[in-house]
Amino acid sequence: MRRTNWLAALLIAPLLLLILGSFVVPVGLTLFRAVADREVAAALPETSALLASWDGQGLPPEGAFAAVARELAAALEERRIGDLAQRMNFESTGLRTLLLRTARAGDRLRAPYADALVALDARWGQRDTWLMLQRASGPTTSLYLLRALDLTRTPDGTVTQVAVEEKLFRTLFLRTLWVSLLVTFLCLLLAYPVAYTIARLRAPWSSVALTLVLIPFWSSVLVRTTAWYVLLQREGPVNDALLGLGLLDAPAQILGTRIAVVVALVHVLLPFAILPMHSVMTRLDATYLRAAASLGANGVQRFLRVWLPLSLPGVAAGGAMVFLLAVGMYTAPALIGGDRDQMVTWFIANFMTRDVNWGMAAALSAYLLAMSGAVIALTRLLTGGAVQTGARA
Amino acid sequence: MREHPLARVLLRGATGLVLAFLVAPMLAVVVLSFSPTELMVLPPRGFSLRWYEDFLTAGRWVLATRNSFVVAIATTLLATLLGTAAAIGLQLGRFRGKALLVTLLTLPMVTPYIVTAASMYFAYALVGLTGSLPGLVLGHTVVAVPFVVMAVLATLQTFDANLLRAAASLGAPPTAAILRVVVPNIWPGIAAGAVFAFATSLDEFVITLFLAGPGQFTLPRQMYASVREFLTPTILAAATLLFLCSLVFLLASESLRLRSARKTLP
């Protein structure tokens, strides 16, 4: 027995190492990055240390002014001021200019530095500037997690809403949630009669119908999204058909609208709703239906009181799968949707590649993971863990 | 047990419409890829293979195809090897927390790909794996391997453990017993997992977007870039060829499923 367990451990170990090293630890690092705050302490170590012992009243001592002038000049010289400037600018717009201006003036500044810095830029004479530097000295921050909910901290530490023109993320999360729920609802609505009919069809028709579900299931998400991109173009077949039927007078701009995103997402995710329902319904014990009939239940009653409750685990599994894939979907909205249709995923990609604000990318990822985790937990709770969620996407 | 005739007609009609909705976009792409002109209109005005010729002669498409297949084959080999070994280990072992371990190993399946991709990007950047072929293969393997684990575990449920005891009593060392008794009995499951892994890698886009270097274009990445740049029927030729691949995967997986279903019959 013990030898068998050794062998089992040996067989599992390589994959476990890969998953730990290439998935669990990286995702953990991302979660850590959502709260990590290292830029200020890394670029201005002495200033950070001095500010740590400052009580936050009035202005910090002359030593802090001297340290920040020297360390900013050094950071500029060694070309490592960028991360710091970006971090502080994200705290409060305009701090980038202040830091860069001070860094460039570095050599010309003379003691007493408190006067020299204030003469250079009045913001050095404001307590708030120093409070923000003090708070950003790390090692952790709630800045990104708060900002991802359109919240911010005033320099003295109270949490408030960001300015109206900077509000973005609550709408984004609500939009992601709304589009995903709508797509899930539509998928379930379309999938149920299909799964039911296929489960009750006779061979070989059931196999034929099932194959028509499996064909899109196996084909690439990008191929199917591209197909919709072609079909929905201004001169594309869908517009042609609508014009031909007299439903439109002039070609409509369908690409880049919310409708296009929802249609493409429903098309991409529908098989993930049909297949779990179908597998539950084909295993459903028909004797219950016969029993209900022999007890005098009519067709509607048999469906509502027997078939529907018995098939609910499949509905739950399919719904959870569709929702999970919808909130995490990047390709279809990115290609089909306009700027106002983008979901959390698109902003994560943007913060990663264009803005290079990894803290925000990590914070949005953390919330997205929380959403997915909640859905998985809820499904397990509802179905008692009986139905496995998971499929190819 | 029959439905009301009217209900049946309505149900079948609805089912037909939904199935048409599922299949029609792909059929349209296939038809349009044979378009003789750049115009993508239905019904087509003629038939031509010029976009396939374009696909086969354009350097970037050929390179993307080669990259895709290199990554997919490497991913399939790695994922099938690691996934099969782990599944057999999970079946053999008698220890607590097995369900938790299965959940952990299959977690990449339910994690949003964008989160996995962003996390891998951070982590791989630390060790210099971004923009490299090994990095891309490792990334694809992480998201492909859960399907292998699930497929092999499912087949192992039908494996008769007495066969292993028989092998051991006949003096076979454990490795020989696994290779010569277990693997030959569960190969349809292993093959099904491999097909899934290959298809997952060939389709994978988001992880490639983050991990691949500037020159590392795979077919999905090239398709995405081309659609954003300028839509030509060459993209549809590429899409049709990828669609053909997925039909092959479907056939392979269904025949394997039938084979293992026959095995489990009494």
Structural account:
The complex is a heterodimer of chains A (393) and B (266). By secondary structure, chain A is an all-alpha fold. Helices cover 70% and strands 2% of the residues of chain A. Chain A has 2 domains: 39-138, no CATH class; 169-383, MetI-like (MetI-like fold), CATH 1.10.3720. Chain A has 19 helices and 2 strands. Chain A has a two-stranded antiparallel sheet. In chain A, strand 1 (151-153) and strand 2 form a beta hairpin. Chain A starts with a helix and ends in a 10-residue tail after the last helix. Chain B is mostly helical. Chain B has a single domain (50-264), classed as Orthogonal Bundle (MetI-like fold). The mean pLDDT of chain B is 87. At the A-B interface, helix 1, helix 10, helix 11, helix 12 and helix 14 of A face helix 1, helix 3, helix 4, helix 5 and helix 6 of B.
Average residue-wise pLDDT of chain B: 87
Q: Please tell me the total number of domains of chain A.
A: 2
Quaternary organisation of the protein chains = heterodimer
State the helicity of chain B in percent bands: over 70%
Apparent shape of chain B: globular
| Overall geometry of chain A | elongated
H/E series of chain B, N to C?
Answer: HHHHHHHHHHH
Concise account of the structure shown:
The complex is a heterodimer of chains A (393) and B (266). By secondary structure, chain A is mostly helical. Helix content of chain A is 70%, strand content 2%.
Topology:
The complex is a heterodimer of chains A (393) and B (266).
Chain A: H1 2-33, H2 39-43, H3 45-52, H4 62-77, H5 82-91, H6 95-105, H7 113-120, H8 127-135, H9 143-147, E1 151-153, E2 159-161, H10 169-200, H11 205-218, H12 221-231, H13 237-244, H14 258-282, H15 286-294, H16 299-327, H17 331-336, H18 344-353, H19 358-383
Antiparallel strand pairs in A: 1-2
Helix pairs in contact in A: 1-19, 3-4, 4-6, 5-6, 10-11, 10-14, 10-16, 11-14, 12-14, 14-16, 15-16, 16-19, 18-19
Chain B: H1 5-32, H2 50-57, H3 59-92, H4 98-105, H5 113-127, H6 133-156, H7 161-169, H8 174-203, H9 206-211, H10 219-229, H11 233-264
